[in-house]
Each structure stands twice: as C-alpha cells, then as structure tokens.
Amino acid sequence: MIEVGKINDLKVVDENSSGYYLSTDENEEKAFMPPSLGPKEIKIGDELKVFIYLDTSDCLLATSNFPSAVVGEYAYMRVVETTHFGAFLNWGITKDLLIPDTEQKTPIRMGENHLVRVCKDERTERIFGTTKLGKFIQASEFDIAEGDEIELVPATKEELGYRCIVNKKFVGMIYHNEIFTEIIPGKKMNGVVKKLREDGLVDCALQVQGIKNLVDSKDVILDYLEKNGGKAELHDKSTPDAIKKALGMSKQTFKKSIGMLYKDRKILLKKDGIELVNTNKEE
Questions:
Q1: Which helix (H) or strand (E) holds 156?
Q2: Half-sphere exposure of 265 (CA within 13 A, CB side)
Q3: How far apart, in whole angstroms, are the C-alpha atoms of residue 222 and residue 224?
Q4: What would be the CATH architecture of the domain defined by 7-63?
Q5: How far apart are CA 101 and CA 22, in angstroms?
Q6: What is the pTM of this model?
Q7: Under DSSP, is residue 76 helix (H, G, I), strand (E, B) or coil?
Q8: Which one-letter DSSP state was computed for residue 66?
Q9: 164 backbone φψ class: left, alpha, beta (φ>0; ψ -120 to 50)
C-alpha cells in the first residue's frame, strides 16, 4: 500500500513519454513520477525510495527529493507566499506546503520562519501544515528517555530559551542559562534529553551534557558488573525494559556506553551478555 505523506519504497513498473509509474505491486495503485522529480537514470524494475503526495488533480505523485518533514513530523520552514486563504512554506520539494488560515496560531507573514507540524486530512489525503501545535504536543508518545542523545533544531526564541524540534518528532526547550554557544535557528545541533515533561514537551541540553551522561553511564555499567561477579546478561538485543530495570538507563545510552567500554578494553562483548576483561583473564 502506498502511503501519502510518507517515504515509500516503490518499484518502477511502467513508463510512457511523460514519465514513470511506481508501485509496491504491478496490480496495485500506482504513483506517477515525471523525469524532473526523479533521478537522472531510471529503468523499469528499479527500486526507489520516494516521497508521495497528491497533485492538483488528487493523483499520486512521487519524488525522489525528500521534504524537511513528513506527515507527523515537525520542521522549521520559511514562508514563500501568502494568500487570502493561507500561506505557502518551503519544505524542500517542488510543491510548497500550505498552511490554511484556519491552521495558523497567529497570522503568518511573508518571509517569516515558523515551527510547523506536517499533517494529513484523512478523508482527502491532502497534506497541510499547522502552527497550532498544542494538541500534538500534549499527545506526545515518547520513544526517548532522559539522557538520550538527540538531534535538535532550534526554532523560535522565547523568554526562557529557544523552542526547538527534537528528532523531528517532538517539541522541546533549550534554556538560556544553559546555552554556551551560538544558536542559529534552523541549524541542526546535537543535544541530550534532560527531562520528559508531563505536558508533552522535552527539556533539552546541548551535547556537552550528553558526553557527561555517557561517561556517567560507563561508570554505572562497570559498577554493576563488579557487583555481579563481573558478568551481566545484557547485550544489544536486550529489551529496553530489561536494561532500564537493571541499569536505570535507555537502551540507546547502554549500547553507546558498552561500545565505548569495549574500545577502552574494559569489557568483552559476548552473545549472551557482557563481561569485565579482568574477570575473563582470571578464569
């Protein structure tokens, strides 16, 4: 099934003088891709990763260019046109993203930059943007944990700090009193989760704290091993719950930490867990 507003893996199944037709199966619905929206060399049978949206006739259109955000994600976008019914923003593909006037928290003006969530009308499958973010933030279902490294995109400057996009999926805040480098709205930065708030927002810190978190996590793992005979039945295939219960950290942090400990030659990585190097030598 082709998903509108998402990145799809499709196969080129047909072509004509106007372009190419892509599908998941030759008997299913097809998306059209004109040569201008695809790679230079295409042939039937090629498998392509494409973004799908609707053209003005509500037909499926494919492009190998990806937008700055897909449906359900956030991005920092610039206004390129305003009309009586809404505003159009540049989101990285040929067709600009419409934010209807009914989806604007405050009136949008030409040349402004905005933090936008990409949405889809489930009835018409038309894609649109919104700056009314409250209900989406409150409904956040976090797949990150405190201490995790994250990708940040600073957006709007506010009284307490910068409102930012977290991993394209969440909205957070970097506070002014914790900023020790230049912040450029729209420029990606590395950061770390400080706190997951009950209101759906993410309190963030910049990468310096992320590095400290990994150092602390390494010490936690070594201490756990020393207290448990030098071995632990934890590895990169362990469940996040098992890792959190034993060590109080996320699986992502655990994997990065054991990788660093392995490089430091302090632990051995086994199929069924990890071991202190010294314990192995004594045996």
A1: strand 149-157
A2: 1
A3: 5
A4: Beta Barrel (2.40)
A5: 34
A6: 0.72
A7: strand
A8: P
A9: beta
Q: What is the pLDDT along the chain (283 residues), one digit of tens a residue?
A: 899 999 999 999 999 999 999 999 766 789 999 999 999 999 999 999 999 999 989 999 999 999 999 999 999 999 999 999 999 999 999 999 999 999 999 999 999 999 999 999 999 999 999 999 999 999 999 999 998 999 999 999 999 999 999 999 999 999 988 787 789 999 999 999 999 999 999 999 885 555 566 667 888 999 999 999 999 999 888 998 888 888 888 788 888 889 889 988 999 999 899 999 874 444 4
Phi/psi region, residue 72 (left: phi>0; alpha: psi -120 to 50; beta: rest), is left
Residues of the chain with CATH 1.10.10.10: 209-282
114: buried, middle or exposed (CB in 10 Å: 19+, 13-18, 0-12)?
A: buried
Rounded to 5°, the CA angle 231-235-241 comes to: 105
Tell me which residue has tokens 């942090």. 253
* Distance, CA of 198 to CA of 137 (rounded, Å): 10
* Among 3, 28, 1, residue whose Cα is nearest residue 13: 28
What is the chain's Cα-based Rg?
A: 23
User: Which CATH superfamily, name and number, covers 140-206?
Assistant: Nucleic acid-binding proteins (2.40.50.140)
Q: Evaluate whether 127 touches 4 at the Cβ level (below 8 Å).
A: yes
Q: How far apart are the first and last CA of the chain?
A: 55
Handedness of CA 125, 130, 136, 140 (dihedral sign): positive
Q: β-strands 86-90, 97-100: how paired? A: antiparallel
74-132 topology per CATH: OB fold (Dihydrolipoamide Acetyltransferase, E2P) (2.40.50)
The helix (run of H) or strand (run of E) holding residue 117 is strand 113-120
